[in-house]
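Collaborator request log, item 7. Partner lab (contact: R.S.) asked for a structural prediction of ABC transporter permease to inform their binding assays.
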Amino acid sequence: MSINTVEPQTPGFVAAVSAAAGAFFGLFVGTAQGSGLLGIVIGAVLLGTMGFVFAGMAEREKALRWIIFAVFLVAGFALGGLSVALVGGLFGWFAGWFIFWLATSRYRAPLAPYLTPGQVLWHYTFRVIAGAIFVFLITPILVVMPLSFNAQDFFTFTPEMLRFDPAGYSLKHYEDFFNNPDWQQALWNSLKIAPMATLLSVGFGTLAAIGLSQPHVPFRRAIMAILISPMIVPLIISAAGMYFFYSRIGLQGTYFGVVLAHAALGIPFVIITVTATLVGFDRSLTRAAANMGAGPVTTFFRVQMPLILPGVISGGLFAFITSFDEVVVVLFVGSAGQKTLPWQMFTGLREQISPTILAVATILVVISIMLLTTVEMLRRRSERLRGMSPS
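Returned to partner:
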């Protein structure tokens, strides 16, 4: 027998692990319905019983999984209509897959055969914890996006939306954003401030990172700590300090003052990304260029910059996102003439509850996803250029 061959698991083991999974999911469902403890009990009993009953029926896995899926789908439809039926169907599909995944020991297939049960348990526990953290972080964002298509002026899902009735959905909040002069002025202000702040952040941050990467620079660690302090110090403290300083030198309430403030917030991101790129930079290339007669400026633009460009662009994108989404500092440093998009959203939440905020939030989320995807692509390209990953 091959060392990778694994035996089917006992009904007791499948029932115990299935009950733990059922209790985990039951906690969320029960909490949403007002009783987390009841959800834990029902989820544990339901999935544990299914695991015990179906553990010895692996030869009929395909048919049983379809039956479980259909039962949960019908039960969900009976309890809450089409939307709950979809959730029930997804849970039924997962329950059927999970039970037979345990019963047939398929969970051991991708793992090394010498791992102990404790190591196997930690392997999957770590992934469950990471997945739970991901769900907690991403769920609020995913909830906002469908709400932005609400046909009513509500911040909650209407019965028509839950029934997937086309009458419950509308683009009127997006139309209000593109037709409302207040929102368009705020968007224009953000588009005027963020690019300029990004250019300053990239310029100063790149030069600072290159300088601090030189081993002969004294007090490098202390200088680095000071330069990245804006991303460590609470934002409200930085905003208050900028307000008192800028008001003394006449920059408070001006366009240039807001740009400088946002540039100060973006510089740490550029320094960190460019410094990380410079870790794998071969300094013999700059020495070779100098030996060939190239000056410092020519060496920088012809030799060094092409290799660190992915890190520079990544830092610039982070600086742009920081400036475009920032609201606290602009409240202190800016004036009514520099009201940015996040400021307008904050005002809308405080003074007049408008669902247009949900449409704007969705647009910002889409833009952020596109920019972060670009950052990831640039990171991989940088690793390939430095020979840290295969092409």
